[in-house]
Amino acid sequence: MKILIVSKCPTHPTDAGNRWWILSQAETFMALGHEVHFLYIDEPVFRNDPAPYKESLEKTSWYWKERFHLFQVSKQQKFKFYLKKVYRKILNHRHWKVDDQYPVGLDDMVNKLDEQYHFEICIINYYYLSRLFKHIYIPKKAIATHDAIAYKDMKIGMPTMCITADTEAKAMQRCPHIFALQEQEADYFQILSPNSKVYNLYGKYNHHPQPVKGNQKMLFLSGNNEFNQNGIKWFLKEVFPVIRKSFPCAELLVGGGICKVLPTLGNIEGVTAMGYIDDPADFYAKADVAINPVFQGTGLKIKTFEAISFDKVTLVHPHSMAGVFRKDDAPLFASDKPEDWVVFLKKIWGHHDAINAIKQKDKEYLQAMNELVLKIGRASCRERV
């Protein structure tokens, strides 16, 4: 079976949750023996440094090779997107309409690719591409949601542009098949689009065993969105000082875009900003313990599962347990009380047997989750159009 994934977000470098989720979709279906192609919608860069965007294009195209396809958005169309954003902010309380960000001409390119490759499934990422399904002939159509966006806005407030539930419903109702990242969101999408088939498709993670380091370091690898910023601020203000009282040599190594916020917090002893991380495996090899202090947001907590996949003892804020596969069996420690973190770390640091026991649980947990992911992926391919 030939599958086309369409996205404005590249897959590489896989240093953000949305990139990982798109790549996970592809790896899930490739593991089932399907031929997966990737159509990347590239937009011109006006105000930001173009170098990271160029790197993403190069690394993504290198990964996909002959199955990589490029749709180039014109500067004129990008400027129109910007004007719409300004207009919506001024007159419509920052709410996008469903097709505001849809790239004109995308459906023509998809139909041309379909004539050449004869795809059986098309998967779009994010609601703003849903218009594509009105104009293409690929038999099976699915959307991979990354968040319940309107729900997130209603529940916690969004710092940037958002959509209403009516807009999200309009997009979902164009999609016969919907992939959700957690059970609560799957229920929400089913309400928005009762005639769609909704799947709670966890991501697929490979297990990367790593040896015990035996140090008192913790790791946090993250992008720089507002929820991650608030999470690291909470940890450094409430939890880390308490940990340092019991473990004066304790360190926190921070990697990824979140490092940009650290200078605004002052010089905190024991905290090291590692900057951009080219290879997550090298970063995670530096310690036995990883953290996810994020206490806001929806979607799947990618950082949590990534830490498990790299064989870490993982400590999280309870919010980061939301949507976790088999929560009661998850090899995670969760608490919002600093003293609880200290008690748990006392059981881990200096106790290699305890660390190895959690590593074994990491492996078994991922194996069970991946088996379910492949089962759901197989079922979604067999589902009638």
Describe this structure in words.
The chain is an alpha/beta fold and 385 residues long. It folds into two domains: 2-201, Rossmann fold; 217-368, Glycogen Phosphorylase B (Rossmann fold, 3-Layer(aba) Sandwich). The chain contains twelve helices and 13 strands. The chain has helices at 17-31, 50-64, 75-91, 106-117, 149-156, 165-172, 183-192, 226-246, 280-284, 302-309, 338-348, 352-382, and strands at residues 2-7, 35-42, 68-72, 121-125, 140-144, 177-180, 197-200, 217-221, 251-255, 271-275, 289-292, 313-316, 332-334. The strands form two sheets. A seven-stranded parallel β-sheet has the order 3-2-1-4-5-6-7, with helices on both faces. Strands 10-9-8-11-12-13 form a six-stranded parallel β-sheet, sandwiched between helices. Strand 2 (35-42), helix 2 and strand 3 (68-72) form a beta-alpha-beta unit. Helix 8 (226-246) packs across helix 11. The longest helix is centred in the C-terminal third of the chain and has 31 residues, at 352-382. The protein is globular, with a radius of gyration of 21 Å. The protein starts with a strand and ends with a helix. 40% of the residues are buried. The model is unreliable at 154-159 (pLDDT under 50).
